[in-house]
Design a protein that fits this description.
With 943 residues, the chain is an alpha+beta fold. Strands 9-10-14-13-12-15 form a six-stranded antiparallel barrel. Strands 2-1-7-8 form a four-stranded parallel beta sheet. Strands 18-19-20-23 form a four-stranded antiparallel beta sheet. Helix 4 packs across helix 6. The longest helix is centred in the first third of the chain and has 28 residues. It is globular and about 95 Å long. About 6% of the residues have low confidence.
């Protein structure tokens, strides 16, 4: 029997492999693949607990908020393997990450494994031989305060989500979710869109002209300048206007004036006539730029979004892979500080690559403003005391990892380099302009600025990206050598009109920055926050911009009106600070949760808010008023316009029946202006187009535009009635077809689907080609195969069909080769592959299939991300979790009672309140119809 080893447990297989190479043969390193247990779903509780205090949340809120944890089904095999390995070990070393999540994973491992051997906690923030040796020599005890903070956050999110999400299901739409941080982030994006909706553009004009030193000057280089003052008064620029289109109070107080188009064009014409120009002043100021601090998690995500176009999730996935393979330090940190060895490494490389003069005499020291446990980490930087240059890693990293490592390397080296220095020259040019009809000349002043970098310093290595900003962009102009009173010639004067722009939408970078500024979220959560609000359908990306859905407007409105304190930015940030205090051991977990849930003198508590919600008007929550005639409504099948105008019908009770108008796909909320809404409402629906007569049935075939897309259908003959339950034949058009141009043959072929391809000679079963909910496919008995395109429905022959059926279920390409292949899954022991399935790309180990979510791309899926997706899928469990959903209708009995009560009230004579605007529109519509009818009758009488 061999000598006992020390068992080391880490979170991921990659990390285990890297650390194992440094620890040696005396250590056995095994991965837990994340958490081994978590809060139970209420449906998973033992039957005796379901009706007790744990029944609602799997948390006993009346007894210290005790959680009920379970080992997930997909982790039972892992736990068994860990217990088996522990039997042969003389020590247990827990080497999970040193943040709250890593500390909690270690604690759960202790709780589940119950070791009888000595336990050591080993922590490090980079995976290098030196760091691991140092960690071995400096083990510590488990930090229970960090565990408490993670557990508090987990319980907090459970209470918040399970109490508020059901309100969203009832009042907005099913399957929605609310979250402590995701709701605040969604509100930020919605608030920005509201600002854009309310924005009023302002027009302002200026003049640009080209000035050239006159003959005899030592430097006759022409330069462009912009008009900034007229008769001593400064002209308004974009930054001088408020979002309502008027000058800001500050600009008005300063006497800023707006230049109108007519005067701008008069001045430009007068300048073109040959007005004399002279240099009035030349001002030179020193220019200095300092390098940006090394990366924190937030700034890394922001810069990767700006420069590499990575999503936050992609950035963190690549960063985790780089960390676990020993290339960078720990990637979840809010500290920009560097260790002594990192400073030496950065200064040494800067001097080697760019010269000793680019390194300042003293090292630069960076400190962060953030508080909390993660401040203890270093900034994100290349690992080790000698940084590996990007060129040395080209064959070892994927393209995504390489680009991110290069970004981190450049930023780190640049952070220890000297300031960039230069000078900024600003020239002011005066021109006396004779305006037509004016007794005296108009004094105009033009300015131009140019910056020259004389010592690039850190710019040799790196320059930080910038987010989109409003207002006028400063132009850097190459200026000649000029002197005061020097005469200049004026050419090419041009009057230019400008419009102020609305606040720019958030990008992933700017939203992360804003969340950090507000104190919402922490390094470990930024990527998850943004991914969650996108996966939930609250936010979508349009280019790099984050655009809220109309559903997000309804959700935010409900939360603002009925859970105001819980989505307040300051309150959310204060909760993060409280969690930091718990992590530092300065606050008690149970007392804090009790105050949050049951309330205090300062706050009613979550339970108090939910218990006293009162009546929520679902219709009002889901209605967004555009103007007096048009509102946007979030309905069962998506958003639409509800229109009250003279085209509406009047019901028997005299009330106006609103019209429903579809909204084009891809129309952003801020684009739905009142003018656009009326344009959509006024557009006449396309008339049904008669394509021709069906050659066999003789019925008319028409092409229509329906709510779910264009289609063709057969019209019944006059007086014809179909048997009960039977409807006219209908078929959707292919994506390549247009209802305005579809020909009779194509329409007939569509209506005659499914098409019989032939009979399979082996089974004697008929093979048909048809279109389905998920696209075109072949069918033979109960067996199916996906067709490559809709056109293949009509083009495929029997031989082609037989070839497809001879292949595995999802086609030859997918069967014979995967899109990506990885090592064996640590749970199943089988190789992981990324395949393209009928419903999109997915990850599989042959036993479990996990769909790749929106926000992830196939190219960016790493082994760690694949393992994570499979683990999440296994944790959801098999079909048994659907059982509670079937019981849901029974739980909704109180809602039915409410509906019944409403019917009783209506029957007893209670009148429905009438909206004055709708009442007026109904009267207007009735009057219009009456006038049309009278005119028709008069015309008939005259005839």
């Amino acid at each position: 029997m061999g000598a006992a080893k020390k068992l080391v447990i880490v979170e991921s297989p990659t990390k285990a492999k890297t650390i194992g190479g440094y620890l040696g043969d005396d250590y056995e390193v095994i991965a837990s693949v994340g958490h081994v247990r978590d809060l139970a779903e209420p449906s998973e509780l033992p039957s005796e607990l379901k009706k007790g205090p744990f029944g609602k949340f799997a948390v006993d809120v009346d007894n210290g908020f005790a959680p009920y944890y379970v080992v997930a089904d997909n982790k039972k095999k892992t736990v068994s393997e860990l217990k088996r390995a522990l039997k042969g070990a003389d020590e247990l070393w827990l080497a999970t990450d040193e943040d709250r999540e890593g500390e909690a994973i270690a604690w759960h491992l202790l709780e589940v494994l119950k070791p009888k051997v000595p336990v050591r906690r080993m922590v490090f923030h980079e995976i290098t031989k030196e760091a691991i040796e140092q960690a071995k020599a400096n083990t510590r005890d488990l930090d229970i305060a960090l565990v408490d903070a993670q557990e508090t956050r987990r319980i907090l999110d459970r209470l918040y989500g399970y109490d508020i999400s059901p309100v969203l299901w009832r009042k907005v739409a099913p399957k929605l979710s609310a979250g402590r941080v995701q709701s605040a982030a969604t509100r930020l994006v919605v608030d920005r869109e509201r600002e854009r909706l309310a924005f009023v553009s302002a027009e302002y004009w200026d003049i640009t002209a080209t000035f050239t030193p006159e003959a005899g000057a030592t430097d006759s280089t022409p330069f462009a300048a912009r008009l900034v003052r007229v008769d001593g008064q400064r002209l308004a620029t974009g930054g001088d206007f408020a979002d309502d289109g008027t000058l800001t109070p500050r600009a008005a107080k300063a006497g800023v004036i707006g230049l109108e188009q007519a005067r701008a064009e008069r001045l430009a014409s007068a300048l073109a006539a040959g007005a004399p120009a002279r240099v009035r002043s030349v001002e030179t100021k020193p220019h200095t730029r300092r390098p940006a601090a090394p990366f924190t998690t937030s700034t890394l995500q922001q810069e990767a979004s700006r420069k590499l176009r990575y999503s936050s999730r992609q950035t963190m996935s690549f960063a985790q892979s780089l960390y676990e393979n020993g290339y960078i330090t720990y990637m979840r940190t809010d500290s920009p500080s560097l260790s002594g060895q990192a400073i030496r490494a950065a200064r040494t490389q800067a001097a080697e690559l760019y010269g000793a003069q680019t390194v300042p005499e003293k090292p630069r020291v960076y400190t962060g403003k953030a508080k909390g446990a993660q401040e203890a980490h270093e900034a994100i930087r290349p690992a080790g005391d000698v940084f590996q240059r990007p060129s040395a890693l080209k064959g070892k990293l994927t393209q995504g990892e390489y680009a991110l490592y290069e970004l981190i390397w450049k930023r780190t080296v640049a952070s220890q380099m000297a300031d960039a220095k230069g000078s900024t020259d600003t020239v002011t040019v005066g021109v006396e302009v004779a305006e037509p009809g004016e007794a005296r000349a108009t004094d105009t002043e033009f300015t131009a600025s140019g910056t020259v970098i004389t010592f690039p310093g850190f710019l040799l290595a790196y320059e930080e990206g910038r987010d989109e900003k409003r207002g006028d962009n400063e132009q850097n102009v190459a200026l000649p050598q000029l002197a005061e009173s020097q005469a200049l010639g004026v050419t090419e004067p041009e009057a230019k009109g400008h419009e102020t722009s609305p606040p720019p939408r958030y990008t992933e970078a700017s939203l992360t920055k804003r969340l950090e500024e507000l104190g919402i979220g922490r390094p470990s959560t930024y990527a998850a926050i943004i991914s969650t609000i996108m996966d939930r359908g609250y936010v979508a990306k349009k280019g790099q911009a984050l655009v809220p859905s109309w559903i997000a407007f309804s959700v935010v409105r409900l939360l603002e009106e009925h859970f105001a304190a819980l989505v307040d930015y300051d309150f959310t940030a204060e909760m993060e600070n409280d969690l930091d205090r718990i992590a530092a051991g300065d606050a008690d977990r149970s007392a804090w949760l009790s105050e949050f849930y049951f309330g205090s003198d300062a706050h009613p508590g979550l339970r108090g808010v939910v218990d006293n919600l009162g009546e929520i008007d679902a219709r009002a929550i889901n209605t967004i008023k555009i103007d007096d005639e048009i509102s946007l409504r979030n309905g069962k099948y998506g958003p639409y316009l509800e229109v009250f105008d003279d085209k509406c019908e009047v019901g028997e009770d005299g009330a106006l029946k609103p019209r429903s108008v579809n909204i084009p796909d891809g129309l952003a909320p801020d684009e739905l202006t009142p003018a656009k809404a009326h344009e959509l409402a006024d557009a006449e629906p396309a008339e049904d187009r008669v394509v021709g007569l069906h050659p066999k049935t003789g019925k008319r075939i028409v092409a229509k535009n329906g709510r779910f897309g264009p289609y063709v259908t057969e019209l019944l003959d006059d007086g014809e009635e179909l048997p009960k339950g039977q409807k006219p034949r209908t078929a959707s058009l292919f994506k390549s077809m247009d209802p305005a141009t579809i020909e009779l043959d194509a329409a007939v072929a569509l209506l005659d689907l499914p098409r019989v391809v032939g009979v399979d000679p082996e089974s004697n079963a008929e093979i048909t080609a048809q279109n389905g909910r998920y696209g075109p496919y072949l069918k033979k008995g109960t067996d199916t195969r996906t067709l490559p395109s809709e056109d293949a429905i009509f083009s495929i022959d029997l031989a082609g069909a037989q070839e497809l059926f001879a292949q595995p279920k999802y086609g030859a390409r997918r069967a014979s080769s995967a899109l990506k292949e990885f090592d064996a899954d640590p749970v199943s022991g089988k190789p992981i592959k990324v395949r393209d399935g009928r419903f999109g790309p997915y990850v599989t180990d042959g036993e479990t299939n996990a769909t790749i979510p929106r926000g992830d791309s196939v190219e960016d899926i790493t082994f760690e991300r694949a393992v994570e997706l499979l683990a999440i899928k296994r944790a959801k469990g098999p079909a048994k979790r659907k059982a509670p959903a079937k019981k849901a209708p029974a739980k909704k009995a109180p809602a039915k009672k409410t509906a019944a009560a409403k019917k009783t009230a209506a029957a007893s004579g209670t009148k429905k309140a009438v909206d004055p605007a709708r009442s007026a529109a109904a009267k207007k519509a009735a009057a219009t119809r009456a006038a049309k009818k009278a005119a028709a009758e008069q015309a008939a009488a005259g005839a």
